[in-house]
Amino acid sequence: MAHAAEHAIEETTTGLNHRKMLMWVFLGSDCMFFAALVATYMVYRGQSLTGPYPIDIIDVPITTISTFVLLCSSFAMVQALSATNRDDQRGIRIWLLATAVLGAIFIGFQIYEFNHFKNLGLTLGTNLFGATFFTLTGFHGAHVTVGIIWLLGMLVVAMKGRLGPASSLDVELVGLYWHFVDIVWIIIFTLLYLIAGFDAGPAALPGG
Amino acid sequence: MASITGVIARPTGYTGLWGWITTVDHKRIGVLYGVTAFIMFLIAGLEAGAIRAQLAQPDSTLIGPETFNRLFTMHATAMVFMVIMPLSASFFNFVVPLAIGARDVAFPRLNAFSYWVFLFGTLLMHASFLVGQVPDAGWFSYANLTSTTYSPNDGLDFWALGLLVLGVSSVAAALNFMVTIINMRCPGMTMMRMPVFIWMTLITSILLVLAFPVITVGLVELVLDRNFGTHFFDTSGGGDPILWQHLFWVFGHPEVYILILPPMGVVSEILPTFSRKPLFGYPVVIFSGIVIGFMSWAVWSHHMFTTGMGPTALTVFTITTMLIAVPTGVKIFNWIGTMWGGSIEFKTPMLFAIGFISLFIIGGLSGVSHAVAPSDFQQQDTYYIVAHIHYVLFGGSIFGILAGMYYWFPKLTGRMMGEGLGKWNFWLTFIGMNLTFFPMHFVGLNGMPRRIYTYGEEFGWGLLNSLSSLGYVVLFIGMLLLVINIIQSLRNGRVAGHDPWDAPTLEWSISSPPPVYNFAEIPRVEGRDPYWTTKRRAEAAGQPVAGPEARVDVSTIHMPSPSYWPAFAAVGVVLIAAGLLTHYSLSFVGGVIALLGTIGWSNEPATAPQSHH
Hints:
The structure holds two protein chains of two kinds.
Chain A: H1 4-8, H2 18-43, H3 54-57, H4 60-86, H5 89-119, H6 128-159, H7 168-195
Chain B: H1 2-5, H2 16-21, H3 26-55, H4 64-99, H5 108-130, H6 155-183, H7 196-227, H8 241-275, H9 282-295, H10 311-339, H11 348-369, H12 373-379, H13 383-413, H14 419-445, H15 462-492, H16 530-540, H17 565-581, H18 584-602
Helix pairs in contact in B: 3-4, 3-5, 3-15, 4-6, 4-8, 4-13, 5-6, 5-17, 6-7, 6-17, 7-8, 7-9, 8-11, 8-13, 9-10, 10-11, 11-13, 11-14, 13-14, 14-15, 17-18
């Protein structure tokens, strides 16, 4: 991570850094991953044979708060990159930590939500809603967790004072990943909570 | 964290087993891919032999239904994921940096990681033989045959988890080659000057990166259904088995082009070389490849015509499937146009390349015949489909790969492969292939379903099946000659020189085998077929063509140092999957190993400081 200086002088055909291009292409690949999971959710929307159905347990206000927290973490991420470019060592540490902590709070909300749903009788095996909901949001949560581990790793590097303008790309890459995961959540929140969150049993669906 | 890197001293040697385990050299990784996949090719080929032995006679009880199901499943799964794909990857590794004038791939350690994950994934799936719980639901494992009700043992878990691990390998490799091709071309190598093989590698990589996540989701859902009580594909819980088919074929049809585009690239290199003519209509060949790449996403449901999708879907997918034959046909005309009027040399690579074209035309035509939905209703799940897939994947992919093997073997090893044995190898393979698979068109149209372990004498399929099995024997001898040829050529093949074929591309301008750093000086190119230009220019000026010797001080070239982290992290990845089959604690250990591997990897400079001198 601390060897960005070597990468900075690397010559490439397009002028774009190898690692940055790799990250963009990987995110393209990850788009397809989430697209397939979202497609499964939408195909099975309203197909559950037994409850609980979304309207019985989805709590939009609480998830709105956790969504807001995650959006704030993206702001902190932008600040971390900006501090790196300014070589503001204190700023780098504060904002990297803030991003990781806000991400962890989001995960905390998700753990609470999963537990709460379990107590209300919704597990992976209960119905198609449970299967598709937990798979999609679970994989998103796993992505956030990987991001938190990555951010904490960067924080350790930052504590040693080895992050600065020369390693701006290292921070930018974790930022790209973090913002992507954030955008995926916006899609998930819109579809699973705001649109499909009020679905009742199969018969109550429009046309169902 | 830097201290973790210091626990074991960084490997510096290039020799011995440790040298192979820690190598990050794209050429050696290419060899690792090639050797592993070739061994898998022989194993999967022997599985096919047992299948043909069982089917040679009506009412045979030679290996029985259970073994038969396991063998056709593992034969096809291995041939697709552990033979053709990694053999193509072997060419990507060996050829791509050489042909674009680079010293290595963009991410040498990620490249090593891809190989080790591929190897461990292959071993994981084949470990199913050790515990006698072998996958047996066919290579596309349709639901609900894959549910725990109908497949109670762990075979399908081995299959799904093995494929998930192989997917990690494929995506990592594809990401690497996309960046390498876009970002590491030598000066002057614009996109429209790249060799066609490089273009096909790029398109294949894009397809891999976008298609594998879809099957990953399908496989994850399958694993959840089998182990965690979900009902994704289980009708009793409201699930829909057809969803599996959609997820599988949204991946599966791009996958078909992942299997065929690289060999198409290979023959596009070989035909001009042995016709002594530039490729006919280069831009058209490239654009056809791009169109195929796009359209491969719009044809998947032609695998599902008989699932009751309704007339609109049938019509749409019939039309798109017939349309995708157009760019493929364009390529075939371009290859024929390349040979037309050329001074053709019938060396072994050329024979295999011409074999590729002729057999792929047959496979392509039978493909168009089941693009038509009503016709497909008759052919679905018959031996006609088996004939088709083997004409495109054996006659197409494998012939293209064998052509490439004969073509690049001298560059890889510095020795020529035997021409005499090569020609015998070609003709026996060509005849054996047709004898095996051509009769399948007829038994298929006569109603013989695929995947049945035996058939009654009264159906009258006995004679044609015996012919197919006889064809296998011919094929077997052909492949035996290939193995003998490889061993003999490695031992005492004729020394090749750096440019045995008078070839047009950059890899032939350096010595055989290439030095670790590939190019002493990074080349500059001014057009397509750069090495032909160099040679013809020197000849026209009456000067000798410059040899492959380095003309600069090579001791200043810094190559990436070997590393043990890629193999270490790969062990972590496969343990995560293996833990789901045995005990979750193993997955946890795997996760920790993968994390440690990642930390060590990211703290290790690509080039070790001590090698800077």
